[in-house]
Design goal:
heterodimer; A: mainly alpha; two-stranded antiparallel ribbon; 10 helices; 77% helix; B: alpha+beta; Alpha-Beta Plaits; 2 domains; four-stranded mixed sheet; two-stranded antiparallel sheet; 7 helices; 15% strand
Chain lengths: 239, 248
């Protein structure tokens, strides 16, 4: 079985660092909210306060948030050409019609299976995908927009206490902070399922640990990316 | 657990301001700000044609400030006092807008919200709040209302009490006036800033959509175990790369 490199070590490290930070920041952030503004419930706040203490929870949230933003602030320029720009190029290579069709058909396929789709007269064929599939691209775009908003509003919330006259701005920042965190909280279970539990996705999950995927998998799941690799290899051989 | 309460006999007040200055001194309230006040209203029934009404945080039993706070920085304690945790306060000012009595202010140096807490810093030493201690006319009575032998409990049992409450935004104030007082309709309607009101809607949306997302993928996980989507040909069918996208 021929293996193809899909992710390099720095991207793998950043993915898991990002995952751990997101889980901690979402959990602790929701626990910091009160009453009707708390999306999970009072028990969630009590659980986290029980672990970190009243003041410790906010300190831990700000500390991990700052660490997350700081590491990304270093990673982005250092790995700009190697990781960041290729990643951005891939996720923003959106073909809205094809990508929406992919998402709708994939969802129906998961719920009904190919035979069920045929029964209701739906096409089962999924549009060919590149390095990332449509679902991964949409989640990644949401994650980037939300991450930038969360860092900006988070810094404002953490440091505005020292400034007078920013109360209204702080309130809007808090609302935006919650909107972004809430959107990611809705998308993350889908992303985790599709990456780790969905049928046929195990090689993609393993590639997030080893960096490699079987060539057959790439050919089947990411045919446009596989074709571009074949084309590059052909050009290389010709030269 | 004691249940602290303050009763004010405004008829005894002659607006000397000792309560305000004493509070500012004990609680290091910055110049130009105050935790308590004496209202002066035109009232022909009182001497000099003016009525004085001392006040402060009403330590409400249904505090709108607590409901408005997005970070659990303010809460009603079991001892009946509405408190602020300055380490949790982000200074958004939602509680200031929500208080019908304007009993809160944003501390200019700390950036967090401050209000009367019945001198919490000295209360644990058994010292009465500064406004109670320093009032030469003994206008204010403070104590544990759950103790029937306390002065505050006895006055509450024996005298008629008047509550100053916003008709638009009732908050069940625990601070009360002994007998009649001057103006009682001055508290304004509480205001909840629009971003804070919107946060409630967003949180409700996140709760239900998040639950739908989470339970949806759990249901899908079990569905794939019990009834796999794979047909005889294997997994789902992708258009080959040569198709460059959706196959016609």
């Amino acid at each position: 079985m021929t293996m193809i490199r899909r992710h390099n070590q720095s991207a793998i490290c950043m993915h898991w660092f990002n995952a751990l930070c997101w889980l901690f920041l979402l959990g602790s952030g929701f626990a910091l909210l009160a009453g009707e503004m708390q999306p999970i419930g009072a028990w969630w706040s009590e659980l986290w306060v029980g672990i970190f203490g009243e003041a410790g929870l906010l300190v831990a949230h700000i500390a991990i948030g700052s660490l997350w933003a700081g590491i990304y602030a270093l990673y982005t320029p250092l790995f700009l050409r190697r990781d960041v720009l290729p990643f951005l190029r891939e996720i923003f290579a959106v073909s809205l019609r094809c990508d929406l069709i992919w998402c709708i058909r994939k969802a129906f396929w998961l719920v009904m299976g190919a035979s069920g789709m045929r029964k209701i007269g739906m096409q089962t064929q999924l549009p060919a995908q590149g390095f990332y599939n449509a679902g991964q691209k949409f989640v990644a775009i949401a994650a980037i927009i939300c991450s930038i908003s969360l860092v900006v509003t988070g810094l404002l919330l953490a440091f505005s206490v020292m400034q007078q006259g920013l109360e209204a701005l702080v309130r809007w920042a808090l609302l935006l902070h919650l909107c972004c965190a809430g959107l990611m909280a809705i998308l993350l279970p889908v992303h985790i399922y599709m990456a780790a539990c969905a049928p046929g996705e195990r090689p993609a999950l393993i590639s997030m640990l080893t960096g490699f995927v079987p060539e057959d998998f790439a050919k089947h799941h990411n045919p446009l990316w596989h074709a571009s690799l074949v084309e590059k290899a052909g050009e290389h051989n010709r030269h | 657990m004691p249940r602290y309460r303050m009763l004010i006999d405004s008829n005894k007040c002659y607006n000397c301001g000792a309560c305000i200055v004493g509070c500012q001194q004990r609680n290091s309230v910055p110049y130009g700000y105050r935790r308590n006040w004496v209202r002066v209203d035109a009232d022909p029934d009182y001497g000099f044609g003016k009525g004085f009404q001392p006040g402060g945080c009403m330590q409400c039993d249904a505090p709108l400030c607590v409901e408005a706070c997005p970070t659990q920085a303010t809460w009603k304690g079991d001892d009946g006092v509405v408190l602020i945790d300055v380490q949790r306060c982000i200074g958004c000012g939602a509680c200031i807008a929500a208080c019908p009595y304007d009993a809160r202010y944003r501390h200019p140096e700390r950036g967090t919200v401050d209000k009367c807490d019945y001198c919490a810093s000295s209360r644990h030493l058994g010292i009465a709040p500064a406004c109670v201690q320093l009032c030469p006319a003994q206008v204010r009575t403070f104590g544990d209302a759950s103790d029937p032998s306390s002065e505050v409990a006895q006055i509450a049992a024996q005298q008629t009490l008047t509550y100053v409450e916003s008709p638009q935004s009732p908050t069940k104030p625990s601070l009360a006036f002994v007998g009649a007082t001057t103006v009682t309709n001055w508290p304004r309607a509480a205001a909840l800033p629009s971003p804070i009101a919107a946060m409630r809607v967003v949180a409700t949306g996140v709760r239900y959509l998040g639950a739908l997302s989470l339970f949806g993928v759990i249901a899908m996980f079990f569905k794939q175990i019990l009834i796999p989507s794979d047909d005889k040909s294997g997994a789902e069918i992708h258009t080959p790369a040569s198709g460059k996208g959706e196959k016609p």
